[in-house]
Amino acid sequence: MQKKHFYLANKIAETRKFKVRSQGGESKIPQRNREEHADFIKGQYEKVINDALGLQDMLTGPEETVADGVYLDVDVVKGLIPKSLDTKNGVQILKVSEEETDIVTIYVKKEKRDWLPDKVDKYIHEETITGRPKYEDLIAPINDILPADIKSLYEPYNTFEGLPQKTPLLFELWINKRYDYSIDVISQTLDEQNIECNIENRLQFDDVDVFLIKTTKETLDTLPTYLGYIEGIRRYHQPSILTETHETNREWNALLRDEISFIDGSLRVGILDSGVNNAHELLSPILPDDKMDSAIGVLDNIDHGDHGTGMAGLALLGDLTELAYRSGMNLNISHSLASVKIIENGHETDSDFYGSVIEEGIDKAQDMGAVIDCMAVTDEDTFNNSPTSSSAALDESIYHGGACDRLVLVSAGNIETSDVDYNNYLDSCKASAILSPSQAWNALTVGAYTEKAITSNRDQHPLAAPGGISPLSRSTYSWVNANWRVKPEIVMEGGNVTYSPAYGVSTDPDLSVITTSQDLSQPLIDFNATSAATALATNLAAKIKEANPDLSVLSVRALLVHSAEWTSEMNKLGKAEDIMPLCGYGVPNEAVATFSSEKCATFVFENEIVPFIEGSSSNNIYNEMHYYDLPWPSELLEAMHDENVTMRITLSYYVKPAPGRGGRNNKYRYPSATLYFDIKKSTETEKEFLARCNKNDEEDNSSKSRNATKLWNVGIERRKNGTVQSDWITCTAQELAECGKIVVCPSCGWWKERKLKNVDNKIKYSLVVSIKSEQTEIYQAVETAIKNRIGITIANI
């Protein structure tokens, strides 16, 4: 029997004042020969400044707008970037490049050129009250000071030389928004340098604006001379979509038409793609013309590329193969669609900045009633784990000014069949990084796996075993620091490929899913890869929301991940650190995501936390954490003795992005603020647990309680770096009887450094907790515990 999840909103949470415990392990300031080091740093700084100003005087004419400062590269001991390299009023960090050391590109205004020499002099001659050299934390970590040029600002830095010298190309220009930021100065400078730019068509974030410009490498080479506060310059890649079209069985369409019933419902799903042919008889009942729109400059909203219509069919109906072979079993559809065209095959997108297209597309979809959006349009950018203008725009749109009322599922990107290594296809999956904008923190990124391994073509054999990663799916295995975030978070069916010596690697209709086609003469087509997977994940998200209409999209997102599991084939890949870059948390389970059951009881909490308050110094301090003492079926769990049970916890929230400055390379400066969870161990008291998590609850320094890192399957460090975090422990029921206490705590983010009156300073989140037993029915005991605590009775179906 299906059971309702226990939706408790914020009824259990206790707000407690929070002070973070020292994490330890920070790098130590290097010991330097004080006078020698000071003389070297001061000499290097003055030489670089003088050379840069001399070059500026030589290149600029009397009537030209010129930068009001110069760029420098500061070589710093890794992990010891001084905060005072960023003064906010004339000296500012623009970029951090992670090499063997940290290379920090800064901008120094001319009027502040004496900023560092003054501090170097005090470093030599003055000491703090503790006997340390003054400004030691600034001067000692610096290894060297070097001139910065266009290559310091260009990303990836080693590709600038390969650009054609005089060919006009599209670039993204990232400009830091300091206190004296002037859009007029930027516009005037670009005009004077003959750089094409539609100033109004820019992406705007709190800390940076991103402009789409058209110019040559030759002009870019001297741009830092004329324009200050450039954070980065990148090639702009126009988006592309990967589609495959094969012969299909037209007779299925008539069969399917009679099996589908459309029920009026309020839930609408947005398809952000190449448009949809809403004349298709399987789509027309739920996609009227007034729910079709475009975010690009084309004349119609219809799909001409056979991608958006395929996505719409899967998001609405699921894989039609399953329905086609279960004739006589009616499919009731209670959600509808909206379509926003964000790409057109053959359409020139020079004037369509993809980040702004994403923002407009999501806005238009929501205006038409969509709260869940599906997007399988990627560009060719990978940029390791750093944000692009597209992924940052996606994050900003999902955050939606703090409303956090949008769920966007985005594809990880596809591997071309020609790039699949047929000897060991996982090698090509590992080598192919996910494509922008799928690295977005707030989006739920979907990769592909497959259960399809039987083909009618005897001459070709499938590469992936059932339950394995699809050979067409990209991963984060090649990210420099794969422990940074879990991407993709989930995987869905994306089809398999075959290999034969005669034909090489190819897709196969037998190993694909079936969906609607924009070509009405052949109304069904086979479809595959991460596009198909993303559309199917969207279909599941809609089912979760339909079954649980009171839940926010943050909880829908959480339940998709919370219900996911690794297949036996995925478990063969090794430990979590080997599995997760390829398939995240695994394959969502529809039954577990939509409902609880007698042996699996799920709590859902929705709350908001204020992470920071103003402190006595320039930085803010931590404010509060939430403590959940759950209505726990302790007596039943104790009576179950050694029966194995599993407890799973998932935390889902959104961040406001800061893609500028150090945020592109620093997981603590891109998000506004971060959250993490922890649970009480069976072997510690409540006081020990709270003291371990919160310095404000510490009664003395004698507590030896530590986090039970070995209990978790994913691991504390790996899970906590994303905005959807999930982990689980399996233990005896008697042990779990003591584990019904959870904390949700804030952690680092750029809000901590900002004046709180200028930021939202509030994080909405969803916390999902479940207990799963192997033999004993547990749901009724949980319901009784909740009723005894807060008087809520859950209506079941």
Please write out the topology:
Blueprint: E1 6-9, E2 13-17, H1 34-59, E3 69-76, E4 91-98, E5 102-109, H2 115-125, H3 136-139, E6 142-147, H4 150-153, E7 154-155, E8 169-176, H5 183-192, E9 196-204, E10 208-215, H6 217-226, E11 230-235, H7 251-259, E12 260-262, E13 268-273, E14 292-294, H8 308-317, H9 320-324, E15 331-333, E16 336-341, H10 354-367, E17 370-375, H11 389-399, E18 407-411, H12 425-431, E19 444-450, E20 461-462, E21 468-469, E22 490-493, E23 497-500, E24 504-507, E25 513-516, E26 524-527, H13 529-547, H14 553-562, H15 568-571, H16 576-583, H17 590-594, E27 600-609, E28 612-614, E29 620-622, E30 624-629, H18 634-639, E31 644-653, E32 674-679, H19 686-693, H20 716-719, E33 724-732, H21 733-736, E34 741-747, E35 763-773, H22 779-790
Parallel strand pairs: 1-27, 7-11, 12-15, 13-16, 13-17, 14-16, 17-18, 18-19, 19-22
Antiparallel strand pairs: 2-30, 3-5, 3-6, 4-5, 8-10, 8-11, 9-10, 19-21, 20-23, 23-24, 25-26, 27-35, 28-29, 30-34, 31-33, 31-35, 32-34
Helix pairs in contact: 1-2, 8-13, 10-11, 13-14
Pfam families: Peptidase_S8
InterPro entries: Peptidase_S8/S53_dom (IPR000209), Peptidase_S8/S53_dom_sf (IPR036852), Peptidase_S8_subtilisin-like (IPR050131), Y4bN_pept_dom (IPR034074)
Protein name: Subtilisin proteinase
